[in-house]
Inverse folding.
């Protein structure tokens, strides 16, 4: 009898802990979603930085990256600005993300001379470090273009690196949002750790 009671107590505690974790996850998910929408202000800028994502076996941007490029293109068409495309070649990619992005933009009417391909960075920290070094002389404000779920952290990193940054977030389908938001929540832990330890 006592053994059965102990099992029930353990089960109740395990279910309560799971409920708390689900509640925290849902709260963080909603906060990231809202923050991504709120931070997409498309402010005044002197240059555009587009952050990379997966390239397909064909060499074309995947749908997440194409959404980012469409947002950058629409902004460029309103006010032509220098564009820096960021992203190296991953082990499962045929070409560097930055090169694929540049080709896409040129194909959609942006002069090649207005685009720089930064193809040495493998994460957001390196993206923004390397892009900062490539900014044209006299650049004061930058517009960081990425997916809406990624925008809050990308802007936090950009500002921690001394950039006067505003952001433009491209929308992500719900199916991709569940996966990417969850991964992004874990990435925030790395950001806070790096900031706390002075490594950012």
């Amino acid at each position: 009898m006592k053994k059965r009671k102990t099992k029930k107590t353990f089960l109740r505690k395990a279910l309560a802990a799971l409920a708390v974790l689900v509640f925290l996850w849902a709260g963080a998910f909603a906060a990231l979603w809202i923050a991504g929408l709120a931070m997409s202000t498309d402010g005044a800028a002197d240059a555009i930085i587009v952050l990379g994502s997966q390239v397909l076996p064909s060499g074309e941007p995947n749908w997440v990256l194409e959404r980012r490029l469409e947002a950058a293109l629409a902004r460029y068409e309103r006010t032509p600005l220098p564009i820096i495309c960021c992203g190296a070649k991953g082990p499962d990619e045929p070409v560097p993300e930055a090169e694929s992005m540049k080709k896409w933009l040129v194909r959609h009417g942006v002069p090649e001379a207005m685009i720089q391909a930064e193809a040495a960075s493998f994460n957001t920290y390196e993206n923004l470090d390397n892009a900062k070094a490539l900014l044209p002389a006299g650049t004061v404000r930058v517009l960081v273009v990425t997916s809406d779920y990624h925008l809050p952290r990308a802007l936090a990193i950009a500002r921690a690196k001394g950039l006067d940054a505003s952001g433009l977030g491209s929308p992500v389908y719900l199916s991709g949002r569940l996966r990417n938001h969850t991964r992004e929540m874990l990435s925030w832990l790395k950001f806070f750790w790096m900031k706390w330890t002075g490594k950012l």
